[in-house]
Amino acid sequence: MEDQVILVDEHDNKVGFAGKMAAHQRGALHRAISIFVFDSHGRLMLQRRAAAKYHSGGLWSNTCCSHPRPNEESADAARRRLREEMGVDCELKKAFSFVYRTKFGSGLIEHEFDHVFFGNHDDRPVLNPDEADDWKWVDLTELTVDVRKRPETYSFWLAACLDRVISCRSLNRAGAAAQKIGSTSTLMA
């Protein structure tokens, strides 16, 4: 049976389910997850999507991206898919959500209410070859420059949310520093 995705409205309220390919053929808004894993040096783990993926194959993207199953919480799906795709198991924290829509040359339409999670991990991943062909650690400043210079080598959603990822990382680091010096305010991304 085809994987099902959770159809949502513009406020992320569940409105039903659809087959994954049918949702992408119709451009139906559905729930998604994107995971960004950083090492202790602040570098982001990128994956190169497997060439055989149904869209965006061979492009560099964030550490992991997928869809929750029907009745699965986004945080649970994020942790499950990170293990399945990259062989990485680490604590994940919700950073933000965003909505995007793009049409691919194949005619498929990605229209997602994307929940973004951050994690920390220093070990090498163990790639699932059905999901990823390669991986690398990359500095966020270098990544920003390269995404602007060579956008055709990156997934649409990575480019769409990269500035917000960097902003949230900066806020989180500032909040952690404030807490270390005794501040009572907490920054939430």
Automatic annotation (TrEMBL):
EC identifiers of the protein: 5.3.3.2
Pathway annotation: Isoprenoid biosynthesis; dimethylallyl diphosphate biosynthesis; dimethylallyl diphosphate from isopentenyl diphosphate: step 1/1
Primary location recorded for the protein, binned into one broad class: cytoplasm
Record's protein name: Isopentenyl-diphosphate Delta-isomerase
Matches recorded under HAMAP family: Idi
GO molecular function, one term: isopentenyl-diphosphate delta-isomerase activity
Known catalytic reactions: isopentenyl diphosphate = dimethylallyl diphosphate
Main function: Catalyzes the 1,3-allylic rearrangement of the homoallylic substrate isopentenyl (IPP) to its highly electrophilic allylic isomer, dimethylallyl diphosphate (DMAPP).
Residues holding Mn(2+): 24, 30, 67, 110, 112
Domain Nudix hydrolase: from-to ranges: 28-160
Places the protein is found: Cytoplasm
Active site: 65, 112
CDD domains linked to this entry: NUDIX_IPP_Isomerase (cd02885)
Domain of life: Bacteria
Gene3D superfamilies registered for this protein in UniProt: Nucleoside Triphosphate Pyrophosphohydrolase (3.90.79.10)
